[in-house]
Design goal:
- The strands form two sheets. The protein has a six-stranded mixed sheet, sandwiched between helices. It has a two-stranded parallel sheet with strand order 5-7.
- The chain has eleven helices and eight strands.
- With about 260 residues, the chain is α/β, with parallel strands linked by helices.
- About 50% of the residues lie in helices and about 15% in strands.
- The chain is globular, with a radius of gyration of 18 Å.
- It has a single domain, classed as 2-enoyl-CoA Hydratase, Chain A, domain 1 (Alpha-Beta Complex), CATH 3.90.226.10.
- The N and C termini lie far apart (about 45 Å).
Length: about 260
Amino acid sequence: MSENIVVSTFGQTRHIQMNRPERKNAISVAMYSAMADAVNEAAANPEVRSLLISGAGGSFSSGNDLQDFMNNPPRDPKASPVAMFMEALLACPKPLVAAVDGVAVGIGTTMLLHCDLVYASDVSKFKMPFASLGLCPEFGSSYLLPRMMGHQQAADLLLFGEVFAPEKAQACGFVNEVLRSEELMARAMSRCEDLNALPASSLRATKQLMRGDLHEEVISAMEKEKALFDLGLKSAEFSEAGTAFFEGRKPDFSKFN
């Protein structure tokens, strides 16, 4: 288990916390692997009835650790730790709850589309900057977002990759409530306890029915995203975006077609 992933239990809820506050919980390869293991273990554990995902230190997650990602690109996109984490969330039959405080960038936002309940603080900030990095959307977001909020709203978020507020995330349909930071964890934990008091079998059945055929369609979309994402990682645009990030300058994409 990565030291940057803290797994604990309260009641019958398994709490998975990203714990790398000095990097705003940027997710490394080791962290993806640890989270995949934690989700799969909780899903198989009969004593666990719900899962809660959060981030430490006033941030949810700033997304992929860009340096780690560039140094350790996925050699097999279907078997990488990132893919294993995605598959673990997709396959989890138990209620998934997220508590979002501070930044939620890239996969820090797209993973929320696969949670059943999402609670966000009033200072949370969301961003999906894939296109601006020379990449494409991931985790089925290119399929799910247009169906949740309409093509134009999804295009605004995915093409520009700009920061948006929790109120917009709520209006778009993937945040349930916006609360003050000091109220966030208590509310998320309380809702987990409410879930734990309900019949586990009916919750599983309800979640399965709600996902329905969507599950296969999301997997199909993710396969297409993975192929294009892999090409993006090898592109000159992504190289320029990464170099500019580490040099502290704005990337120049004018020389690329």
